[in-house]
Amino acid sequence: MALFAALARLAEDLSHQSSRLQKRALIAQAVAAVAGVAQVRPGEAPPVLSAEVEADLGRFCMYLAGTPFSEADPRKLNTGGALLSRAVKAVSGCTDAALTAAYRRHGDLGSAAHDLLIPPYGNAPTEPMLTLSAVGDVLTAMASARESSSRTALVEGLLRRATALEAKYLIKLMLGDMRIGVKQSLIEEAVAVAAGAEAAELRHAVMLEADLGRAAALAFRGALDQARMRLFHPLGFMLASPVGSPEEAIARFTEKPAKGKAAVDSEPARDESSPDEEDFKDLNGPEALTICDEDELAEDVEAEAEQVLRSAQDDKSGEGQVPNPTPDIEHPTPVLQAFLEDKYDGMRAQIHLGDPAAPGRVVLYSRNREDITLSYPELVEAFHGVIEDAPPGLSGGLILDGEILGWDMEAGRALPFAILGQRIGRKKVDNELRARIPVVFMAFDLLYERGELLLARPLRERRERLEQVVARLAPLATAPLDQHTAFAPGGLFAALATDEDHVPRLMLSPAKLVESAEAIDLAYAEARARANEGVMIKSAASLYLPGRRGLAWVKLKRELATLDVVITGAEFGHGRRAGLLSDYTFAVQGAAGPDGEPQLLNVGKAYSGVTDQEIAELTGWLKAHTLEEHGHFRTVEPLRVLEVAFNNIMRSDRHASGYALRFPRILRVRDDKPVGEIDTLERVEEIYLSQPDRPQES
Fold this sequence. Notes:
- This protein has 698 residues and is α+β, with helices and mostly antiparallel strands.
- Helix content is 35%, strand content 20%.
- A hairpin with a 7-residue loop joins β22 and β23.
């Protein structure tokens, strides 16, 4: 049976390796070793692996990717940093101060545990004994444990059997982030190399099955063509790049790409050092500060589109049978061909329904791949009604991409995100909240229909099919404002409300073809007048590239304003920012205090927008001007001024000012400006009241 130590040693080697090709070679070699075979050459007969070896192979690949269970598996470990920290302290016998110092040294609990499980604190075993199967058994038990104390005991038991290096990567695995510079896409490539398979075929199997372990087993069997699409696992969301003006948007769509390069060219989503505000929106609260990393499956979509294109070009007798998903690849014409939509300020989501293998099941997924179904029961009820009536075209299942919006039923427009935010993360929604903040699903893309994955189809075709789907389903997708009977997704229910009490829950995002910068500018003004964030411009030829942010979709949002603020506190960062004060709390001037001086009132916290050099300089300065230390956070002398931009301003009880900047980002350090000239609370209130999308106040 394969040992977990093999994975830990590989992970440690990968963390010190910078070459992508070398990393792939190391992973391929290790995967072949777990399979117990030499690397399979393309065309060779596939090896015969036992069920036990296939299980170990699947665990090895998933654990290396930092995933305890497959994406299709809804189980969760329900362990956080606090629980794991308690376990490390119990096993190592270290003090709180030692744990804090080790964590601050590395910015990573797994690395801190390694230091604490060797003398002078811990005395971890030196001979590896843990098998991948044994680790899997513990993870399974943790997922089913109801009490935190039971999970803690399981973690402690596992750590007591682990070497220090194994413990390091066990904790990283349980936190879901190995931090070794390896994405799942690279593991997929390495598995393909080891199994003698095509990387594109393996990626496609992973996307369909949502199970890296099963795809690896299929690859070694030479049976990747047996992979089948499963609903009820979130696909990666296609992302948009920001533009600052209509003219910039026009330039993005009309400039000629390099020869042989598709107009759907894209770049990976930004890393944590430069997040986009959209990366925060779908977490557990409007001010969450965690970025979720999405798998990148776009290469598979592009490869599939190119294959369809070649087939269409070769099949001269079948004109019209196979659509051309990228008609401008070979001879791009500098003419704008794009759809224009409002950019809504809601919660990006996918809805999955209609799978014959799971009758009646409806699931909503957020952009960070969380199941958010329980937070929006009225949407489940509405789409459950669609399934029961089974209109033509629903057979085979559907995946819709869109936005969950708080909706003003009388005015017929979206409610501000500050209001919808009251429902985000709720596991139980009572009738009062449901009636006060009604929600709808605003659909703007169709990803799967009638058994066909549509990612490689052009937007113009997906949009046409989406319009037909919504026209069929919208009259059926209704639910009452409140519900007086219990509802079980996937089961039958009897509502006391009559049909007259039902309101529509499925809407189609209006879209039109756009031709000029003037039209975009007008549409932007109209969208803001409707209290929406701005506009989206999407290439009509664009493929749906999961997890990608590139040139095919852009979003136009103009900065509301900027504020000059002063740093009042700083917090140590994580990962590569460990040991650096990189998260800054800042304030504006309020009314004069008892001493006659203006009070400083906090309005937000930001960490993006400053360079590594500026962070290093600020860290040294802030350490030298610290007033109080509180673990990872410290208050500092309020002397350094920043200029910050932000999306909008919300009322908030979190700060003494009564306001919070939403998605603040640092534009520059203003050492040229004295603290006495920073902006005031009155200015914050003025900007707040000028927002067309602020909540109405009684």
